[in-house]
Amino acid sequence: MQSTFVQESSVNHSTEYSTENEEFDLEKYFTYVRENSDFDSWTYLLHYLEQNTVPIATIREIFDHFLSKFPYCFGYWKKYADFEAIHSNPKRVEAIFERGVTAISPCVDLWLFYIDFVRERVANGEEDGGGGAGESHEEKDSQGQDRVVKLFERAIEAAGRDFQADRIWTQFIEYLRQQGLEEGFEGGRKSRKMFEIYQQLISIPMSQHSQHLEAFKTFIGQNDPGAMLSQEQYEAVKAEAKKRVTDSAEASGTKTINGRVTEGDNSEVARIRLVIIERQQEVYRKTETEVLKRIHFENNIKRSYFHVTPLDKAQLKNWKSYIDFEIENGTHASIVVLFERCCIACALYEDIWLKYAKYMQLHDVEATRAIYKRACTIHLPLKADLHLAWAFFEENQVDYDRLRSRGIVPKSLVRRLSLAQSPSRSR
User: Fold this and answer.
1) Cα torsion angle, 167, 169, 172, 176, sign
2) CA 426 to CA 413: how far, in whole Å?
3) Within a 10 A sphere around the Cβ of 331, how many other Cβ atoms?
4) DSSP state letter for 377
5) Alpha-carbon gap, residue 258 to 235, rounded angstroms
6) What are residue 260's DSSP bridge partners?
7) Are strands 260-261 and 256-257 parallel, antiparallel or unpaired?
């Protein structure tokens, strides 16, 4: 599993800003970094914060500036949260994690850091479940568990289709298994929840797909099928298991009484378990085919995290080829997931953003607008081609003649748009 933590560069700074210089002026250096917006200078400044005692207000200001410019540096969201935790500000820690998973939603590591933080607070009885002051200890525990479950579900929705997202799924399943939830989950709700998670997991192409199938088989063997399935599902599986026994008996000439084998009969529960497993094995075989189609692209990804250092040509070519393959063979969901992964590693390549926006324009106007906004206002604010592409996109979304006739669009804007569309402009 590759970490998406941005690599810190070794930086040779002038002695003017060396931490060994007794006259080091943090405010002066911060001003210098803001004005120059140099990544290495930023990381040097952040390293200084870790090695020295600095007021929390200053730490917040520096991290806020840095992460507004480099939001894909997931490790620094974690460091920022750690500073707030040291100063006993759990609400601020949570707010930082929320900002982080919003800025870099496909990041498995950051979601797991966030979940671990909430889990620890729940385990220590520190998490406010939102109930009244008179609620019982059991009620608080239940609310805390629900909070963790919902956070896991958000993480799966945001990052769970990543090829390397196995840990979110397995940790979610393990969390449910460890909790004493069965008593509070009517009708075997805990087992049913875990079964549903396994069903989703086995259907998604992922690096550890074979291990997930084996874990699913173990889960089925250790739990009552009636608890993990709905009544309708259970009756359907039960009927199929019974039919298999009857068909097998008739084919072999074995006598049956009322549809039951008279000799050598396996238990009904065992047969139901077998049907459940075989159904998921069919899904697994399809998933395995999809994994094999993508594994060579995945194996050639050497840098999945963000860094300002340019990717080598082979890496860039692999990302582009992978995207072309996914557009040709994948689903809309899988294509978006891959584009989002790619935009982390290739955030400074405008052709990747343009390709993403061009694809999304065929599917979702608001999502396309959000892509352009990220590219133009955060990652590549000085790339003219991106800004022009965004402008033309926005122009195509509006009927300017209709709006002008209603007096909505200023004439000056209409003139600028007319100039942009004129033949002399296009030349």
Assistant:
1) negative
2) 18
3) 10
4) I
5) 18
6) 257
7) antiparallel
Residue-wise pLDDT for 82-110, tens only, equals 999 999 899 999 999 999 999 999 999 99
What distance in Å separates the CA atoms of residue 124 and residue 345, rounded to the nearest whole number? 37
Alpha-carbon Rg of the chain, whole angstroms? Answer: 28
CA distance 4 to 353: 19
B/e letters for 110-130, b = 16+ CB within 10 Å, e = fewer, are bbbbbbebbbebbeeeebebe
**Token output for 217:** 């088989």
Chain-centroid distance of CA 166 in Å reads 11
Across the strands, what pairs with 257?
260
How many angstroms separate the Cα of 376 from the Cα of each of 342, 347, 354, 380? 17, 11, 11, 5
Residue 104 burial (10 A CB sphere; 0-12, 13-18, 19+)? buried
- Nearest 5°: the CA angle 166, 171, 174 is 130
From its phi and psi, is residue 49 left (phi > 0), alpha (psi between -120 and 50) or beta? alpha
Residue in 225, 221, 222 with CA at minimum distance from that of residue 237: 225
pLDDT tens sequence across 116-169: 999 999 988 876 555 555 566 666 667 888 899 999 999 999 999 999 999 999
Kindly state the tokens that stand for 304.
């999945």
Secondary structure of residue 260 in the 3-state scheme: strand
